[in-house]
Amino acid sequence: MAKDKDAITIYSSAQPGSISPDIYRPVPGQHRGYYNVPGYAMVKSTRQYNISKGVNALEVSDVAALLDPTTVQFRSEDDQDARVLEQNYQFDLVSQQKLLQRYLGQSITVEQLIGDKIHKKTGELISADGGLVIKDSRGGIHSINSYHNISFPELPGGLRTKPTLVWSLFSDKPGKQDIELSYQTNGMTWWSDYNITYSETGKNNCEMDLAGWVSIINQSGASFENTKLKLIAGDVNRAQASPSPRAMRQVTMEKISDSAGFEEKSFFEYHLYTLGRPADLPNNSTKQLELFPAVKGINCKKEMVFDASSQFYGYGGLNTGESYGKNSQSDVNVYLRFKNDKSNGMGIPMPAGRIRVNQRDSDGSLEFIGEDIIDHTPKNEDVLIKMGNAFDIKGERKQTDYRIDTSKKTMSETFEITLKNHKDKAEEIVIRETLYRWSNWKISSKSHDFSKEDSRHIHFNVKVPANDKITVKYKVDYSW
User: Fold this and answer.
1) 366: helix, coil or strand?
2) Which residues contact 125 (CB under 8 A, 6 or more apart)?
3) Which of 31, 144, 226, 348 could bridge 278 with an S-S bond, Cβ 3.0-4.6 Å?
4) pTM for this prediction
């Protein structure tokens, strides 16, 4: 088990399915550009320090480069009255260019490779712009455009090899103390991916195997080793400041498999996923973890929907234009639906993410047949996956009559909806109609039964015979 003293909780602010592979998939020879990782993390670590009585100058290194210093929280497990009087976050990290700037006017040693020998030249650095210019002890000026190595006497004050919190800490109890440090850092995010293997067997000739994965990006500027990992699923509000771009460094890919997977529980109004084993999150890395064990034999249902009228909806007031929505053709959309409950082998809160569906061909190979984005889905709710459009089924919607009486404030409209099935088997199809002209309506005649879904939608459930067609007619009356 991971130690409770070291933990990291990662939050995602990305829209489900919006993470581009270019963020975490390195392409040799391609410029990486700049990215803002859409998420953040809450980091907690406990470290032991030898504290003197009174005011101490304490340096805390190995913190994330993208931490927000205003979120830092301090607690001593051995002295409840200990407190931080002053905090400085020093992130001016050492580099060759910064060393050269700090050593202007001071002595350095430059090594040059001439032939197969190293030649050293020591003198005062008087310029580091576009090359090095040094003055030797006799006043000679040397311009050096290429060099093998530079030696500096020491590391100048103010430069750090890693981001560091410098505390002025007061304590009444001298001795070793366990100090708990908590803070928020940017540069981290996570998201979910789901993979389905679909087969036309089982109940309703629709069965699937489902696996869920979590991907984590760490570009925070710090590595986290042997830490307890938690993920928050839900829409957590956070006041946003204007982000600044950060260069993307090399990314490594890593896969983890272990029996101690994620344990889920409710937390405030969200869901918290805690990994049951210690995790390593190296800086500039992407890690994949199993969200839950693969579930096999999930019963599902394939649904076909003809929805040619929804494109006309969107007017807030009365619409009396005769030609509006007069004729339209549309594809028949194909969906997969399954119930996320225990009786179906599920009953697992599913974080929002991309869900991909594959089907095994007769030769055993898996073929991709569709994908969709699902929102955060609690247990006991349906999951609906839009797969694409049916190839062999076509639909047409035609207005056959329109009448309006402005004096009586009434209007009527009649439609014929024809579905043609070119398959060798009958198919059940839902015709979804949007009553877009006005909110006060009544179906006065119909050829098939319908169900009222809400204040603006009705459904006709019809069965279209193989290699045949069916026509649904209805009349709607509006009044205002």
Assistant:
1) strand
2) 100, 103, 104, 105, 106, 107, 108, 132, 133, 134
3) 226
4) 0.74
